[in-house]
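so my prof wants the structure for this chain in the tokens format not the other one, which i didnt know existed until like an hour ago. anyway here's the sequence
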Amino acid sequence: MLLNSSEKIYLFFSSASLFQKMGSSPYSRAASKPSWDRKSKQNTKFGRNFGKFEPKKFSLGLMGFCSLMLLTFFSVSKLFHPSSPLSENDEAVTFIENPPNGKLEEEIANLGSKFEDIGSRNNATRNESRKLEELSASNETDSTELVYVYFSVFTDLETQIQKIENNVNLKVDSVNELAVIVSKEEETPMIDKGVPLEDNLNMELHSSDKQDVVTSNIGDEIEVESTEIKSTLTCDENSIDEGFPYARPAICEMTGEITINPVSSLVTIMSSPDQGYGEKKIRPYARKDDYLFPKVKEITLKSVFTESDAPHCTITHEAPAVLFSVSGYTGNFFHDMADVLIPLFLTSYQFNGEVQFFVTNYDHKWIQKYRPILGKLSRYNIVNLDRDKSVHCVKHAFLGLFRDRDLIIHLHPTRNPKNYDMLDFTKFLRQVYGLKRGAPIVLGDQLHKRPRMLIISRKGTRRISNLRELVRVSKQLGFDVVVSEAGGNVKRYAQLVNSCDVMLAVHGAGLTNQIFLPPNAVVIQVVPWGKMDWMATNFYGQPAIEMNLKYLEYSVSMDESSLIERYPRDHVVFKDPYSIHLQGWDALSNVIMAQNVKLNLRRFRETLLSALDLLQE
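here's what i got, hopefully its the right format
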């Protein structure tokens, strides 16, 4: 049982009153000094000499000493009792990590010094007790003097203990203000002499499936950061873009504990059973096309519930990971851009180079061709998933690439969260290849300065058979003409395109080079015969507008097509060319896409004059 201050005062004065009554009772008599002069008698008659002591004074000393010890014990033990200020704090002191400016160690040291002060007070009390014994043994000390001494000692001890208690309350409040919560997975902070803090504070750490709880010795629970591995997985596998079904390939974005095992073509994500991720198989090529399945390597995405189910990590990456394939239709400049590089930009540019690429269907020649673009998007070496043997661990990953329509980036809440557009991509390319021109020539601003026109030639199909005549007419109209076949070194060709104000080409992959033109330049597309308008507009016409280019389209007549030399005028290719489209890509490529064109230069002249007009705007 603990005594409060009033109870201790009452007990003291009750004892003092008892002492006073004993000093004035009928049993008291005048004190007489025992004779100690004769030592021989002292030794032989110890029992009789002892019996001569006054019982009253001996009892007073003994009872006073016991009372003082009890009062001291009750006062000091209050500091360590569960009901003391240290345990009555509203918040349990939890793990402490990195206390600001070393204040915690200072406060704990101050508390230790205060408790040492209590010990010194106890020693002082024991000294006073010994004095009381000496006084009680003396015949010259009466009961009034004894009560006065007890009262003085008690008053001084009570005052000092109260001061220490007040200081302890303040220090405990300071410690509580410094207390912070940390995860149990981190190293336990240490305080005095290397003792773990939770041992000093008598705390117990409990774990559950969903949260950690720190329990203090008064039973309060404090929720701290969950140790359950939280993960997210979002897959877009069934999106539909009307008219562009291939423009919505499957892609999965995930966060959490992720492993990438190239040997087994397996990606795992740590999850809980109730999340129900299951298992998926993804072909990470940014084009949804059944013809691609044999070409693109399949990656298995699987959720695991324990660390033992996942492969052991050998390499850990801090940067997010992007897994993609460079197979499919790559090798064609249009598909290189539309199916890989623009989707890769859309997926990874947001990380400002802090992203790790993992490439399956690895093609060293393709990688080297586009090394400047890949190196600008990621500052890390590419991991070849076809040869690498390590198990890679990441916290954020994309399996597949976001994409939009061909050579187009539209706003989309999930596939384009950063709201990029094709102007961002073309600006990025100018930075990659050091393209200096950001605008075409404006006619009339510079005397005798002729606009430069690039005519992209072809060696195979869709050639301009009267190219020489076209060059002659173009020069007559005032163009500085350059004829070049697309391909070869990307940087050199990009610089050539960027130096021009007008680019002319028959429908085909060469028109993809418009991405290197300066904004407001002019693009002229020659559209072959055979209902090619939709393809021409959506593959190159609309993208040109999205890139802030000025677009002109010239549709070839039946007489300008080489098909007139292969088929009679009443053939289906002339009567119903769209039926060729319905027969599939093989029929389309073997018939309509295989033609050459011979331009009616008198008719085509009007298109060239329109280009000059656009350069004056």
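also thought this was worth mentioning. The radius of gyration is 47 Å.
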